[in-house]
Design brief:
Blueprint: H1 3-15, H2 17-46, H3 67-84, H4 89-112, H5 125-151, H6 162-202, H7 215-241, H8 245-264, H9 269-308
Helix pairs in contact: 1-2, 1-6, 2-3, 3-4, 3-6, 4-5, 4-9, 5-9, 6-7, 7-8, 8-9
Length: 309
């Protein structure tokens, strides 16, 4: 077995459509089971059957049990992000926006369990954050829809030379290498995250440094840092494939968008929400302008072909 064949075997085992489908089924089962377990723990604690001191909102209200299955679904969404990396850069970026939107939705379920329903709604910090997240989730949903519409637009007349086709194939292979390397990283970081989460739930007094307010940071802050490194590597290798200005700006802009999402994990409140929305808007604008360049270039190529005829 050659080295290339060996790599393709590993790639197919980790990132094939069959593996994706199998992973989806497994995550759904785990998500449902985790929801029921979390719900059972909440009631056992409430009835005093499990004698632990409740310090987290996640163990006080049954609504908060939805937080747990969402955590596993988010891990699968990260896997999908890696899965689509070799296939489409725009789909890969859109998955980042989907993930951060789902994180906000998950946070909404958590905050629902501790809302203070009073006439002083806009003076209570946590109620204000809930309002920000509620509005941001709707706005992000619409922005992702616009991003998908833009990503489906194709203007370029396909007329690649043999060297260009070879360059594209080489770049796709590099993306496959990076995606394959990201899978074990995902598993390691996810296991570490789940371990800390479990220990914080069972022994909150001995894991004070890990709180549910920053549980997202335990996994996503680290993983988005890794994504930024992977994106920069892809940008550098993309220069072997193309040096077109609008494509370089598009790829660079997507990296900036990822960095803004990463920075959002370092802050809280309104600034957190603004960084996330800004990252998505920036990525959408970059793609719209890129498509304008593609449209103009396709028109020029069409005019050139008609003139030759």
């Amino acid at each position: 077995m050659t080295k290339a064949t060996g790599f393709e075997y590993i790639y197919q085992k980790l990132l094939s459509a069959k593996t994706k489908h199998w992973g989806e089924q497994v995550i759904l089962v785990i998500a449902i089971a985790s929801f029921l377990i979390h719900l059972a723990i909440i009631y056992l604690v409430d009835f005093g059957i499990i004698p632990i001191e409740v310090t987290s909102d996640l163990l006080k209200n049954p609504i908060a049990a939805i937080y747990t299955p969402f955590s596993f679904i988010l891990v699968y969404e990260v896997y999908l992000l890696i899965h689509y990396l070799p296939k489409s850069i725009t789909t890969y970026i859109s998955k980042q926006y989907e993930i951060i939107t789902l994180i906000i939705i998950r946070r909404l379920f958590k905050d629902l369990s501790s809302l203070t329903l009073t006439s002083d709604w806009f003076t209570i910090k946590y109620d204000l954050q809930f309002t920000y997240d509620l509005l941001a989730s709707v706005l992000l949903f619409f922005l992702i829809y616009l991003f998908y519409k833009q990503s489906k637009k194709r203007y370029r007349v396909i007329d690649n030379t043999a060297n260009e086709r070879e360059g594209i194939a080489r770049f796709i292979k590099i993306k496959k290498y990076i995606a394959t390397a990201l899978v074990p990283v995902l598993i390691i970081v996810a296991v570490y995250s789940f371990f800390n989460w479990s220990m914080s739930t069972i022994y909150p007094q001995t894991n004070a440094r890990v709180s549910f307010s920053n549980i997202n940071n335990i996994f996503f802050e680290q993983f988005f840092t890794i994504l930024i490194i992977a994106d920069v590597v892809l940008l550098l290798f993309s220069f072997f494939h193309t040096d077109e200005f609008h494509k370089v700006i598009r790829n660079s802009g997507f990296i900036i968008s990822t960095i803004l999402i990463r920075l959002s994990f370092s802050v809280s409140g309104l600034l957190n929400t603004l960084l996330i929305v800004s990252a998505t808007i920036f990525g959408l604008l970059i793609l719209i302008i890129h498509n304008k360049f593609e449209k103009e270039k396709a028109a020029e190529m069409a005019d050139s072909s008609s003139n030759k005829v």
